[in-house]
Design a protein that fits this description.
heterodimer, A: 3 helices, flat, B: alpha+beta, 14-stranded antiparallel beta sheet, 14 strands, 20% helix
């Protein structure tokens, strides 16, 4: 018996020095690391990094983890690098390591959505649905899409609703921006007397309904119903009220910002008037966000709050988007000096939507046209809605994608025609004088120094007669007598003398037959304009010269 | 008799309702309410709005659903003569992959008949090829699906005056849960027409008429595209209704309002016709939208009468959940400021999301006397515990884990990390986290346990849970019953509104 035991002992000692070891060799160890060799119903075989092969037991109490994530034995396959926590030869926890690329997400799979609160070149502050704000950054590689069409980042407005896509889990750099289409634009501002509230259909019915049109409240219907968006709270005199209590305000006047929701009007934001309305159309001299008040040029101080309907560039914005020196229509609620703004509608428009945009509008003589380059001389630049003259030469670039329109011929011309024909000549040469040729003139819309659209004509217009007008298209018609004509509502003209947008109280009829029309940086045709489009234009009385669809 | 009942019970268990996918009516971009159906028809090269009646018949068998549509429509413009008769039957076969928790739905066309009259020109459907396949991911709280659609319709114009082919390609996405469902289709139609039009009169497609003389007609070809986005969405929300009577035993209460709405947007790019012939240099580009809403359905809920929640910041959340029967205890005091237990929260999530089938069938399946008595997986919760089935079900569905393989700690306080794990796993969104090894944006990321990291990351992205003012997540901090109530209501709002917005507005208003 002793011999047998001795032999066994010798065998055990010998075996411990080979690649296989038995349990006695690791008793007392708390952990092990190596490669999983096999996994059976009760055992796990692991090859240590030193080549030793050990067999351990496990059961239903054993914790199985891969890359710190709880998992099941089925995920453990031979070859997996593992670390095991041991209690004698029993595995209490087994951790596998598999992830090749830590913290990876598929491109564009992280999404944030919200409303743009502020744009400052490459930084975009977004108000998230949680109510928090977050700063994100664009890069030259950021893709912007609107209505599925690739657009420039300059398209963005404060108040735009966006979806932001990121390629990494923890980055603030946006890889793609989806911008909500025309549905973001406030279609109309209505005023009416609250008649009934339908909590089932989320709908209110109003009497004596009026729409804000051309600087005045214009009657629409004696009774109308509007669905409302329940996510937006209702306010009265700065106090939030719940929809279930709306019925207690029957008879009160309601102001509503209405958007189109698949062909039907829907209230996006509404505020109840508490007392009496005072309406002002004036410049906002100062904004005090701390006290929540604006001071108009007429020295009226009017407070604002979360409930104030603030519209800028056709979009609902929050109070931080009100800029001092803006021109606005204000419907205030109160009496005497205690006024609260229910509606603030800002007129201001510019060629660029934000400081991301690098668009400019020039007018000048085509001094020289090279194969991809134009020199404008004695040119004018539209600066803050006024033509500013420069006795200089401006070098601008064009390409095959530049929209070039010959106003005299009444047709679009190619880049080659533009270069080879006599739109810019040497006026001192004999050929030019013999043929009575002269340099042509053009209106040039640029993105940086690249010409996006240019309209050329033989003679220079009198720019002093021109003015900048903004407004929303009511109708577009192709008149058999005068050609394409639009009716502009809620229009405003820039007054250089007053340095102020002057709201118009009538529809403005404008001929667009000979206008260069720009939409999303491209030249479009008159028939592509549609009702509801917001325009920024340079016009000479009845005739539009350059129209930018905002 | 007993055998018959047993057979019926077994059959009842097996004949589960097939996967219901919220889906717009047919594949034409049309919308309807209970009474009327509307759609635009582009076969003539013009957008023509048709309205009329419809009938939908659905039959569900094991793993198979047949939907038959019948439309009888006429142009909305009464000056335009016309009529549309369409009958279609689509059969969807569901193949369950229970091992993956997914279902493949294959839809084929089994019957078709269509005849359209637009201003005297007749378009008869001669052939319709159609194929649709969807993958449905069945998660505990909600099913999510996504699919692809391909089809082609061949119409004969006035029997022998040409042909219009409509090529259909697109896809659909949707979800379906107890709180609502939304199905959105995005389909591109390419319409190719080769028709004969009168040479002299140039009867144009504007009026929808083509030559009937034959001898003086000329061939005209045109092509147009129409992008259709249509969504059918149902959601349930809770509204509070006051009790107008002062002398009543209760103040007011909640009602559940179910709203169903269909919206549609057509973006067309069609030829501009001049005397019946397409003009090469100009196109007719535009959009048309449709919107129909069903009558809301109202359901009153039980009235909460807790005595200690009045004026509490979470009063509304607690009352909502109580009204929904999510909190079903009969105590007079809710005790909002004590810790929510793991068992209570698990049960609340299961009830709030109506994850009940397994629980309901429990009684039926335990009828057999010969069956071995069930043994609890966890040593600290007995089979006869009233919460046992909910916990068992939640564990089996992977919504929650035990504190170890043999303990659940049902009375243990629920931590923020555990709450995040439960909600995100219930949605099946834990796989949306980055691959392991990432850090969350919270300053106390190192204190977040590995098992909860994915869920906490996703919960933050969804806006369900945020950090404190110092940007700490406080993973181990227990949730009070009030906090848990607020979180649950937020979760329900995610199911009610956020999903709807993501599947409808975020698709249709941005594309």
């Amino acid at each position: 018996m002793r011999r047998v035991l001795l032999v066994i002992l010798i065998l055990v000692v010998a075996a411990s020095s080979t690649v296989f070891s038995n349990a006695a060799g690791v008793y007392g160890e708390n952990s092990a690391d190596g490669y999983l060799k096999d996994i059976t119903k009760d055992n796990i075989v692991i090859e240590d990094y030193d080549g030793t092969i050990q067999t351990y037991t496990y059961d239903s109490k054993t914790a199985f983890m891969i890359d710190q994530r709880i998992t099941l034995p089925v995920d453990f396959k031979p070859g997996l690098e593992v670390h095991v926590e041991l209690k004698d030869m029993y595995i209490t926890e087994i951790d596998g390591y598999s992830t090749e690329k830590s913290g990876y997400i598929p491109e564009g799979s992280r999404v944030a959505s919200g409303t743009i609160q502020k744009i400052d070149r490459d930084q975009i502050i977004v108000k998230l649905p949680t109510g928090n704000t977050a700063a994100y950054f664009t890069t030259p590689a950021t893709i912007a899409l609107k209505n599925s069409v690739n657009v420039s980042l300059g398209t963005l407005y404060e108040g735009d609703r966006v979806r932001l896509f990121f390629d990494e889990a923890d980055t603030s750099f946006i890889s793609r921006i989806q911008i909500e289409g025309d549905s973001v634009v406030v279609k109309d501002i209505y005023r009416g007397k609250l008649s009934t509230t339908d909590l089932y259909d989320n709908k209110i019915t109003l009497g004596s309904v009026e729409v804000y049109r051309n600087g005045a409240w214009t009657p629409v219907k004696s009774s109308m119903s509007f669905p409302y968006l329940i996510d937006t709270p209702v306010y009265i005199a700065g106090q939030k009220i719940s929809y279930k209590n709306l019925k207690y305000f029957t008879g009160k006047t309601v102001y509503m910002a209405v958007k189109d929701f698949f062909g039907k009007d829907r209230i996006e934001k509404m505020v109840l008037r508490d007392q009496y309305e005072s309406a002002y159309s004036d410049k906002i001299d100062n904004v005090n966000w701390y006290t929540g008040a604006i001071e108009l040029a007429n020295h009226k101080n009017i407070s604002f709050n979360e409930g104030t309907i603030i519209i800028k560039n056709g979009r609902l914005v929050d109070q931080y988007a009100i800029n001092p020196q803006s021109d606005a229509f204000v419907a205030a609620d109160g009496r005497g000096t205690g006024l609260i703004a229910d509606v603030v509608c800002i007129y201001n428009e510019d060629i660029n939507n934000s400081n991301i945009g690098l668009n400019s509008l020039y007018a000048g003589r085509l001094d020289e046209i090279l194969q991809d380059k134009v020199y404008l001389s004695d040119f004018f630049l539209l600066n803050k809605n006024d033509w500013e003259s420069f006795s200089d030469t401006k070098e601008l670039y064009y390409d095959e994608d530049t929209g070039i329109y010959d106003l005299e011929a009444g047709r679009k011309i190619t880049a080659n025609e533009f270069y080879t024909k006599d739109y810019a000549v040497d006026e001192d040469s004999g050929y030019t004088q013999d043929n009575n040729l002269k340099d042509w003139y053009g209106y040039v819309y640029t993105d940086g120094d690249r010409i996006a659209g240019i309209m050329v004509q033989k003679n220079m217009d009198t720019l002093l007669r021109q003015r900048v007008t903004t407004g929303t298209i009511g109708t577009v018609t192709n008149d058999s007598m005068v050609g394409w004509v639009i009716d502009l509502s809620n229009g405003a003209d820039w007054s250089s003398r007053n340095e102020k947008w002057m709201g118009k109280t009538e529809y403005t009829r404008i001929n667009i037959e000979k206008a260069m029309i720009i939409h999303d940086g491209k030249v479009i045709q008159q028939e592509e304009l549609k009702s509801g489009d917001r325009l920024y234009m340079v016009r000479d009385d009845f005739d539009a010269k350059v129209i930018i669809v905002k | 008799m007993r055998r018959l009942i047993a057979v019926l019970i077994i059959l009842g268990l097996f004949i589960q309702p097939v996967n219901v996918m919220a889906m717009p009516t047919e594949y034409s971009g049309g919308v309807n309410n209970e009474y009327e159906y509307q759609e635009y028809v582009f076969l003539s090269g013009e957008p023509v709005k048709y309205t009329g009646t419809y009938k939908i018949t659905e039959t569900n068998n094991t793993g198979k659903k047949t939907v038959s549509y019948r439309f009888t429509l006429a142009p909305e413009d009464k000056n335009l003569k016309g009529k549309l008769d369409r009958q279609m039957t689509y059969t969807t076969t569901y193949t369950n992959r229970n091992d993956k928790g997914q279902t493949i739905a294959q839809t084929v066309l089994t019957k078709m008949q269509e005849s359209v009259d637009i201003g005297g020109t007749k378009y008869d459907l001669k052939n319709y090829q159609f194929s649709q396949s969807d993958i449905i991911d069945n998660r505990p709280v909600s099913n999510f699906y996504s699919g692809n659609i391909k089809g082609r319709k061949y119409y004969a114009v006035n029997s022998s005056q040409g042909q219009v082919i409509v090529d259909i390609s697109g896809g659909d996405v949707g979800y379906d849960n107890f709180w609502g469902n939304t199905g959105t289709q995005i389909i591109d139609y390419v319409i190719s027409a080769d028709v004969q039009v009168a040479a002299s009169t140039g009867s144009s497609s504007t009026t929808g008429t083509t030559s009937n003389t034959g001898s003086t007609s000329i061939p005209v070809s045109w092509q147009g595209t129409v992008k259709v986005q249509v969504s059918d969405s149902t959601t349930q929300i809770l509204n509070y209704s006051d009790n107008e009577a002062a002398y009543s035993s209760f103040q007011g209460g909640f009602m559940k309002v179910t709203n169903r709405e269909m919206v549609s947007k057509y973006e067309y790019d069609l030829p501009k016709m001049d005397s019946g012939k397409p003009v090469d240099t100009a196109r007719k580009v535009g959009t048309a939208e449709l919107n129909q809403k069903m009558l809301p359905k109202v359901q009153r809920l039980i009235v909460p009468k807790f005595r200690d929640v009045g004026g509490h910041w979470a009063e509304n959340y607690i009352n909502e959940l109580y009204s929904l029967d999510v909190f079903d205890d009969t105590a007079q005091f809710f005790l909002p400021n004590i810790s929510m237990t793991r068992a209570e929260f698990t049960k609340a999530v299961m009830k709030a999301c109506n994850i009940r089938p397994t629980v309901d069938t429990r009684k039926k399946t335990t009828v057999s006397r010969s069956k071995t008595p069930e043994v609890s997986k966890f040593s600290d919760i007995a089979v006869n515990d009233p919460d046992y089935q909910y916990i068992k079900d939640a564990v089996n569905k992977g919504i929650i884990l035990g504190t170890s393989n043999v303990t659940f700690m049902p009375k243990g306080p629920l931590t923020r990390a555990q709450a995040a794990l439960v909600l995100i796993r219930a949605l099946g969104f834990d796989t949306k986290a980055p691959t392991p090894g990432f850090t969350t944006a919270f300053d106390d990321d190192s204190k977040i346990p590995g098992w909860a990291k994915d869920s906490i990351y996703v919960a933050k992205e969804l806006g369900l849970l945020q950090g404190d003012d110092n940007n700490r997540f406080n993973a181990d901090k227990p949730l009070t019953r009030a906090e848990a109530s607020a979180l649950l209501v937020k979760f329900l709002e995610f199911l009610q509104k956020d999903l709807q917005k993501d599947y409808r507005e975020n698709i249709m208003l941005y594309n």
